[in-house]
Write a structure and sequence with these properties.
The complex is a heterodimer of chains A (362) and B (357). With 362 residues, chain A is α+β, with helices and mostly antiparallel strands. Chain A has 14 helices and 11 strands. The longest helix of chain A is centred in the first third of the chain and has 33 residues. Chain A starts with a strand and ends in a 15-residue tail after the last helix. In chain B, α2 runs antiparallel to α3, α6 packs antiparallel against α7 and α7 crosses α8. Chain B starts with a helix and ends in a 7-residue tail after the last helix. An 11-stranded antiparallel β-sheet of chain B has the order 1-11-10-9-8-7-6-5-4-3-2. Chain B contains 12 helices and 11 strands. The chains are: A alpha+beta (362), B alpha+beta (357).
């Protein structure tokens, strides 16, 4: 038998009353000088154990008794109606080892979510937003570029148009075309190309002049086209700004992001595209040029030359060609792709010949 | 005991919870929510509410939160289905988005009323439940009507909207069979917001002026000498942008703390139940300090200091709240039974925003 002191609230008025509780098997007696109630455990609800809160027995007549809980009486309380789920939760909450485990698991999960979940979510959303909706973001980025990064192109207008024609002619008629191809002059940036939101591609004059063959420039165009097709600019913004990501997830409206952050153009220019994005763009470019019967080696060549040129001056913080080891990896991959393509062609005597470019003549 | 109460002018409220205890509850909530892919959320919500309500002590008794997690789960599931339908249809048929937007604006007061009913009916003190008697008709004028009018008045009716909203909630809240009453007037809200605007303008002008005056001298110190006027201007621009963000954040923190403390005090000081009153003594600086240290702690602890911050905040707010009884506290009678396991209220609960104590 368990005896407890408790406070009773009868549920009819807000008055409180000191009572004595007695638990005998599954019967509970509530007694006071002018009170004598009997209840059965099966009809009585026991509030879940939570921290150091007082526990309540809630009786079938609407009255409750509140008392301090202690481990000794836990056993006697088993017959009462109670939440198994919350009982289990309490056992976890009150033991240090489970708390430590929970902290560890939470940190790991959150980390995994950020590392994998966010890029995945950004990709998923970006593909579902038509590129036309990026127009405003694109305009802002372009404006930032022409204001801070480069000046009007010194290239001959005919040359500009000729290049544009060349490149657009190579694209299939069904595919996502860039919104516009721009040229501009920037000694600060040097030879480089950028893919901005909204499908804008920018080439610096310095890059055009660095090329020894137009097929090299086609390779770069294909790479930038890859960025556009894979929506890297938008994915970059969404990945880097959890707020932007959540907002777009909920509202599906990216117009508000551009007003949300005036620093987005800066973000796009100052921070590089991730390795993954560059790799995706390279993969796209490789397939694209080889299908045109042009070797991926051309892209590799100009990439190498760009790296050498940029490293020979003070390294620009705005470069999209990042660290040495990464570029070496990319060059190798591009050249290997071409070699493998040739090998497949020569070894495949039956059936269709895989389309491959010829080796660039140096 | 009664005579003791009547002779005591004020009874402070107490918060008896602590961060260590709540950390365990909080982290296990997160663990179980992740492990059950979110299904445990209603149980987490109930445990959270019960912890904070139960450790809020007024005159020797705590508050109870009586909602059933299963009921909440049902309501949330239905709300989730409705939202999914909304997103599904609005992406297929964009024009539907406008229709849904309007429907939501009309449904908002209904949701507010339902959420309040669910929350209040499931709150009890000394085993007497609270109630909410507001109805949709009154709510729509405030929540839809005033909200729609807001842009047309350039936000000038915002204090009026705040007043009407608080009055609607307070006047329709009941403990047992007694109603609360809100004694403040719209003018009181205007006074607070006007003062805020004034202070905001003055501070921005002063600090903006200081930065503009000093920037030309400081910029070269940070960025090195500039080649020409153009570059110099660019440097000054960058410097001002650099300072702008922390400045705006500080001003925002101040404005937020100011409104929270003033509006909080105004609301509690003008809350009346029969002849009983409340007294709230929150201060702008107190809240600013609280919020700032909370934010820093949360950032530097990768979020693990959140339960500590929550406990701290509640303890501060409750520590600045007291009760001034005037008459008998034992005579409150249970309200007429009303069934609030209705689905409408459970759905409303899904849209419930934490107004906080």
């Amino acid at each position: 038998m368990i005896k407890l002191e408790a406070i009773r609230y009868d549920g009819k008025t807000s008055a409180q009353q000191s009572v004595l509780l007695q638990l005998v098997d599954d019967i509970i007696y509530v007694t006071a000088p002018d009170l004598n109630q009997v209840y059965s455990a099966a009809d009585t609800e026991l509030t879940p154990h939570l921290g150091r809160l007082k526990t309540q027995l809630r009786f079938i007549d609407g009255s409750i008794c509140e008392f301090e809980r202690n481990p000794e009486i836990d056993h006697a309380l088993e017959g009462f109606k109670q939440s198994k789920i919350e009982g289990a939760a309490f056992r976890l909450e009150s033991r240090l080892r489970y708390i430590a485990l929970a902290v560890l698991l939470t940190l790991v999960t959150v980390f995994a979510l950020i590392q994998f979940g966010i890029p995945k979510a950004a990709e998923w959303i970006a593909y579902r937003i038509p590129i036309e909706l990026e127009a405003e973001l694109g305009e802002e980025s372009l404006a930032f570029f022409s204001k801070y990064m480069c000046t009007e192109s010194k290239l001959d207008l005919q040359r500009q148009d000729a290049l544009r024609q060349q490149w657009l002619a190579r694209m299939g008629y069904k595919t996502l075309a860039p919104a516009a191809i721009h040229f501009c002059n920037s000694a600060q940036i040097g030879p480089n190309a950028f893919a901005l939101p909204g499908g804008h591609i920018i080439f610096t004059d310095q890059l055009i002049n660095l090329a020894k063959d137009d097929r090299e420039l086609l390779g770069v165009f294909a790479h930038e086209l890859g960025h556009v097709r894979k929506r890297h600019a938008l994915r970059h913004i969404l990945q880097d700004s959890a707020t932007a990501l959540i907002m777009v997830l909920i509202t599906g409206d990216i117009g508000t992001i551009s007003s949300l952050s005036a620093s987005i153009p800066t973000l796009l220019i100052q921070t590089k595209f991730s390795r993954r994005f560059e790799s995706e763009a390279d993969d796209f470019a490789m397939g694209f040029v080889e299908r045109q019967q042009i070797s991926a080696g051309y892209l590799a060549d100009i990439l190498q030359r760009m790296e050498e040129t940029i490293n020979s001056k003070e390294s620009s913080p705005n470069s999209f060609i990042s660290t040495h080891p990464l570029t070496v990896q990319r060059l190798k991959k591009l050249r290997d792709y071409h070699t493998a393509c040739l090998q497949n062609r020569s070894s495949d005597t039956e059936g269709e010949q895989p389309v491959c470019g010829s080796l660039p003549t140096l | 005991m009664q005579s003791e109460l009547e002779s005591q002018p004020t009874i402070p409220l107490e918060f008896t919870g602590n961060a260590k205890e709540y950390f365990g509850i909080w982290i296990i909530n997160i663990l179980l929510i992740i492990a059950t892919l979110g299904i445990y959320s209603p149980w987490a919500k109930v445990r959270n509410h019960r912890y904070f309500y139960g450790n809020t002590i007024l005159n020797g008794a705590g508050f109870d939160y009586l909602a059933s997690p299963i009921a909440i789960l049902k309501g949330w599931a239905i709300a989730a289905v409705l939202l999914a339908i909304y997103f599904g249809f609005s992406s297929i048929l964009p024009p539907l988005q406008l229709a849904f937007g309007i429907a939501f604006l009309l449904a908002l007061p209904w949701l507010v009323v339902k959420a309040m009913r669910f929350r209040l009916h499931n709150t009890a003190y000394r085993n007497i439940r609270f109630n909410f008697a507001g109805d949709y008709g009154k709510a729509i004028g405030i929540y839809t009507g005033l909200l729609v009018a807001m842009p047309f008045t350039l936000g000038m009716i915002y204090p009026f909207y705040m007043h009407r909203q608080t009055q609607f909630i307070v006047d329709n809240s009941q403990y047992g069979r007694s109603s609360f009453k809100f004694l403040a007037r719209a003018g009181d809200f205007y006074a607070i917001y006007m003062m805020l605007l004034l202070v905001f303008v003055v501070i921005t002008a002063v600090i903006g002026g200081i930065i503009t005056a000093l920037a030309p001298s400081i910029a070269p110190l940070i960025f090195g000498p500039s080649a020409d006027q153009g570059a110099a201007t660019q440097q000054i621009g960058m410097l001002m942008q650099l300072f702008l963000v922390p400045l705006m954040l500080s001003v925002y923190l101040f404005a937020f703390s100011y409104t929270q403390s003033r509006i909080g005090n105004l609301t509690w000081n003008n809350l009346q139940l029969d002849q009983h009153r409340f007294k709230s003594t929150l201060t702008t600086l107190g809240l600013m300090g609280l919020y700032l240290t909370n934010i820093l702690a949360i950032i530097f602890s990768l979020g693990l200091a959140t339960p500590w911050a929550k406990v701290r905040t509640i303890r501060y707010r409750i520590g600045h709240l007291s009760f001034m009884p005037h008459g008998d506290l034992d005579n409150y009678v249970q309200g007429l039974a009303n069934n609030t396991s209705a689905i409408g209220e459970q759905i409303g609960d899904a849209f419930d925003f934490d107004i906080g104590i």
